Amino acid sequence: MNAILASLGCFGPLLIAVLLYVLASFRVINEYERAVVFTLGKVNPQPKGPGLIFVWRIFQKAFVISLRTVVLDVPSQDIITRDNVTLKVSAVVYFRAVDPASAVLKVENYYFATSQIAQTTLRSVLGEASLDELLTEREKLGQRLRELIDAATEPWGIEVSAVEVKNVDLPEQVQRAMGRQAEAEREKRAKIIAAEGELLASQQLLEASNKISQNPVAIQMRYLQTLTEIAVEKNSTILFPLPMEFMSVIQRLGEKRD
Fold first, then answer.
1. For the chain, which residues make up each domain, given as ranges?
2. Burial (CB count <10 Å: 0-12, 13-18, 19+), residue 179
3. Torsion sign (Cα): 69, 71, 72, 74
4. Cα separation of 117 and 201, whole Å?
5. What integer pLDDT is reported at residue 73 of this predicted model?
6. What predicted TM-score, i.e. pTM, was given to this entire model?
């Protein structure tokens, strides 16, 4: 019995070392993660996880890849639009890893690579658009950016779900020019509305004059109504309009006397 205890005492440190090795080989993988395991440098066919996995230390190496959507803030890029306007544009890219093995094997750093692809694509696509398109068709441009970035990152196992143009910094002179343009558009609409009002008023006046001219009594009634309206304002001066034909008759009579 003493001999057995003595032998166990000799192997005690070794057993402790083996136990620590086994415990260190266990890893916990979260629900939103997958572990790409390499055994002696060769990748395993399927990623492991989620849950408790066992990775042989020294012989195996695990790379944990998150499957959650990553929000990538693309910094402001200097853009020259199709109509030669220089401005700064920033964007936001939403992407996630759908193939953990490709994200490890096909690219060194998928986050950095996606960021660089997003910046270069942003400059090239927005450089083909005019300033008006950039300001009014952001959704269309965002869809175009998403398609191009997703096509470039698809071999890496990355899926781009959305791209949004976040901010457009316009130069001060462009802002002033747009302000003048907006003011001119408002003046244009005001003049058009005023002209339409004049046209409608003239049509109504023409219709009224045609109806009044059909009855001489109506003309007299309108004349008396006008005098009543003047009298309400308590004016001391009352104008009596005379037909031009009456004035011409008086002028001819004066010429005959001369």
1. 15-66, 70-170, 182-257
2. exposed
3. positive
4. 62
5. 93
6. 0.67
Q: What is the pLDDT of residue 227?
A: 67
Q: What is the rounded distance in angstroms from the CA atom of residue 50 to the CA atom of residue 209?
A: 89
Span 70-170 CATH architecture: 2-Layer Sandwich (3.30)
Q: Is 120 helix (H, G, I), strand (E, B) or coil?
A: helix
Residue 76: burial class (beta carbons within 10 Å; 0-12, 13-18, 19+): middle
pLDDT at 83: 84
Of the pLDDT bands very low, low, confident and very high (cuts 50, 70, 90), residue 5 is: very low
- Give the tens place of pLDDT for each residue, 166-221: 888 887 776 676 677 777 888 888 888 888 888 888 888 777 777 767 766 666 67
Per-residue b/e over 210-238, b at no fewer than 16 CB within 10 Å? Answer: eeeeeeeeeeeeeeeeeeeeeeeeeeeee
CA atoms of 108 and 200, how far apart (whole Å): 72
